[in-house]
Description:
Elements (H helix, E strand, L loop, with lengths): L1 E8 L10 E8 L6 H12 L18 E4 L2 E4 L5 H4 L4 E6 L5 E3 L2 E2 L2 H9 L19 H11 L6 H5 L1 H5 L6 H11 L12 H7 L13 H5 L6 H14 L6 H16 L4 H9 L4 H6 L1 H9 L14 H12 L5
Parallel strand pairs: 1-5
Antiparallel strand pairs: 1-2, 3-4, 3-5, 6-7
Helix pairs in contact: 3-7, 7-10, 11-12, 11-15
The structure holds FE2/S2 (inorganic) cluster (FES).
The site of FE2/S2 (inorganic) cluster has 12 residues, from loops.
Amino acid sequence: MDVTLKVQRFDPEAADPKPYWENFQVSIEDNGTVLDALIKVREDNDGSFSLRCSCRSSICGSCAVRINGHAGLACKTQAQKVIKDGVITVEPAGNMPVVKDLVVNFDGFWDKVMEVEPYLKPEGPEPEAEYIASNDAMLHLSGVTACIMCGACYSDCTVLEVDPTFLGPAALAKAYRFTADPRDGDENGVSRDRLEQLNKPTGMWDCTRCMECVTACPKGVAPMDRIMALRDQALEAGFHNTNGARHTEAFSDSVEHSGWLDELRLVPKSLGMTNVSALVGYAPIAIQAITHGKMPPIIHKKLPDSKNVRKLFDKVQGPKQR
Ligand code: FES
């Protein structure tokens, strides 16, 4: 099949180093991948065209790029599935500085992975023989250990675009790989030190749940789901004193109690009712809401059939005394 590759290029040694687009016409097998087409460009059109690849089998994680605007592995993406009007657009992965053409600098990515201390840290008494982990626990972890550190999730994370200090989906998923391991942490498998670190700003509560990392991950790791699981672990371990934890609890309490969200009280409950300076910072938004007729009702009434919502909570959390 004939493909026009529209590739973003960048040469740091050019007289005026700026990214620019270049089109290449290549011919590949009908079942060829985007990586096959990129390699063809390097071999037949321009030997200076730079890209990373190694295994060509979705194992090494080195060929992550943005294809038609979304991150993925070039070696796992069949060209015929993404070609549009004969064209495939390829850019370097996002949220990382470009070194040359499709090659990006992973230093920030690896720094964050190292920040979560990606190794087992048992805290309890040493076992007499080997550490025992159940098959179920290991099966559960197999989903997250499938990560090949390709950076696709990091590339498309919308929080990192505005806040480069965020740990990011790959590092947080890696952290979960250890907090969910029964051999890590105390004798009950609770990793309080880890959770305390991850509970800080730039950690688990900064994810906005945009789902981009879940869509981008080529191995089904679903990093956002792991971040949500980390939050559950933090709450269960008693870490309630963050905006994120308070927000989650206030949101859930409101919906469980009344069947819908009490928007008026959500912000003060999330920030902390006595956090006067933070509350004052929200005053301009409150004034705008009032002047635009968007003020939520002062008296938050229960929905007539809110008991149906409570039934859902009971089903998920178990019946409660009310
Ligand atoms: Fe190894 Fe694509 S070349 S994952």
